[in-house]
Amino acid sequence: MKKRPNFTTYEQFKKKLLAKPGVRKEYDDLQPEFEIVKAIVEARIKKKISQEELAKRMKTGQAVISRLETATASPSLSQIRKLADALDLKVHLHFSSR
Questions:
Q1: What is the pLDDT of residues 29-74, one digit of tens each?
Q2: Given 3-state DSSP classes, what are the helix, strand and coil percentages for the chain, each rounded to the nearest 5?
Q3: Residue 36 and residue 32: Cα distance in Å, rounded?
Q4: Structural domains in the chain plus CATH codes
Q5: Best CA proximity match to 71, nearest among 39, 36, 47
Q6: At residue 6, what are phi and psi to the nearest 5 degrees?
Q7: Long-range pairs, 54-57, Cβ under 8 A, ≥24
Q8: What are the residues whose beta carbons fall under 8 Å from the beta carbon of 58, sequence distance 6 or more?
């Protein structure tokens, strides 16, 4: 009789990894980038436009939007302003205590 593999859920895997101090620190350090990506994706979806349409409005390529939404590129303040303009939104910056 074959032994079934012991599968781990994503949440279990994440919890185990984040228990390691080095991994936790890196994860926490990346939170601002993840929040920017989440804000970009949510705003675009709320406006019901595609990456291609957003790129046209920003006068850039769809690949640029894809890189921003997958965090393989960090947006400059200039790009964030262009994103906001293209989505007819305002940019707000918020600092808080750690």
A1: 999 889 999 999 999 999 999 999 999 999 999 999 999 999 999 8
A2: 60, 0, 40
A3: 6
A4: 28-86 (1.10.260.40)
A5: 36
A6: -90, 100
A7: 54/83, 54/86, 54/87, 57/85, 57/86, 57/87
A8: 64, 65, 79, 82, 83, 85, 86
The single residue listed with the structure tokens 């205590």 is: 97
| The two three-digit tokens of residue 38, written as one number | 């989440």
Q: What is the pTM of this model?
A: 0.75
Letter for the amino acid at 88?
D
**Residue 35 CA to its chain's centroid (Å):** 6
Count, residues in the chain? 98
